[in-house]
Amino acid sequence: MNIVLESFDYIIVGQGIAGSCLAIRLLDIGKRILVIDQPERNSSSRIAAGMFNPVTGQKMVRTWLADELFPTLHSFYRGVEQSTQSRCLYDVPLYRPFISVEEQNEWMGRSVDPIYTNFIDQVFTSPNFAHVKNPYGGLLLKQCGYLDTRAFISAVSGRIRREGVLRHEHFDDARLSPIGDGVQYGEVNAKRIIFCQGVHENRWFDWLPVRPLKGETISIQSPFREQVILNRGVYILPSDSAGRQRIGSTYNVQDKEAAITLTARMELEEKASGLVDFSIQTVDHQWGWRPTSPDRRPMLGAHPEQQSLIVFNGLGTKGISLAPYFSLVLTRWMENHKPLNKEVDIERFKSLYWKSPK
Ligand SMILES: Cc1cc2nc3c(=O)[nH]c(=O)nc-3n(C[C@H](O)[C@H](O)[C@H](O)COP(=O)(O)OP(=O)(O)OC[C@H]3O[C@@H](n4cnc5c(N)ncnc54)[C@H](O)[C@@H]3O)c2cc1C
Prior knowledge:
By secondary structure, the protein is an alpha+beta fold. The protein is 28% helix and 28% strand. The chain has nine helices and 21 strands. It has helices spanning 17-28, 44-47, 66-84, 101-110, 114-117, 149-163, 262-273, 319-336, 347-353, and strands at residues 6-13, 33-36, 51-52, 55-56, 61-62, 89-91, 94-97, 120-124, 138-141, 145-147, 165-167, 176-179, 182-185, 188-195, 211-221, 229-232, 234-236, 244-248, 282-292, 299-302, 309-313. Strands 1, 2, 11, 12, 13, 14, 20 and 21 form an eight-stranded mixed β-sheet that branches. Flavin-adenine dinucleotide binds at residues 13-19, 36-40, 43-45, 47-52, 170-171, 196-198, 200, 215-217, 248-249, 288, 290-291, 313, 315-321.
């Protein structure tokens, strides 16, 4: 028989972007939390370039919920910087060179459309940056930037250690039992447990369609020193203190190999060469799995038969902008019974994938 030594309001499994944002939300309202995470070199959050951009995709459209996600993102990450005395959020504009006069004209038109005015800084009709292939000028977007994800996770770990408990170990779901209105995990009990495990499964939520999408990035040594993100086919982040720039990312559903590939490196080098005029010399190369969902929306909610078991996953390709907002939505749902948005509630997958063991 287990002797219960310690009680928590919440156990969080996984401290990537999802678990980190949720931990901060819960600490901010005075909850007692235990976070269990086995840090992995290739976890999505540690590999991510950390970029956020409200106008995305091949057609460059305003992203889903941009008006809610982007103000929340800024206030949230700045708040974490303040409460942890650290630096992780970098607001930098994003520059997308035009490839034709037609595209230039199209954006001149869109720049007065109220849907885009909050996000467009300037439309350039002639070359604006040295070292960038931009003969037709380009579009400069605001409310963009990147999060140094490792610095963020490390800052959050520090705060969890000060105000809660952080264990760097493997979470073994065989040791978890729902008991009454809560859960017991080994010698610990809690009112709820929230699984923020990315692509890693656990037996309670293995029916959810979290699909790994492999991504690779490279880093180069470069002469480009402007504080701007370049984006066309690939993105190139501003250089770090060592003069290195991250270039990403590939998207490969078929590739299941846990390793970097020459194909991805060549793809990134070739696309980057189409964007800048200096030679691309790769000095580092990384890979990771993004936890995606079939409808590209996050997955939030309780287990169909065990209300104390909760999931926060499916952040896909946009975890940096989704996690601050949806960690708040999840917290309000758990603490204040505010309903979950149907688009993110895991209820939407229940009739398709869930089979009760009874
Ligand atoms: C190459 C690449 C580039 C990307 N670039 C961007 C970008 O520019 N902008 C953007 O918004 N998003 C980007 N993403 C996507 C982003 O990384 C994800 O949306 C986000 O990191 C998902 O975070 P998560 O916390 O849900 O999962 P994860 O980061 O996978 O975190 C899960 C954590 O849970 C832990 N864990 C799992 N199971 C257990 C267990 N049993 N016991 C203990 N610990 C456990 C893992 O070790 C890990 O630490 C990129 C992803 C990749 C791969």
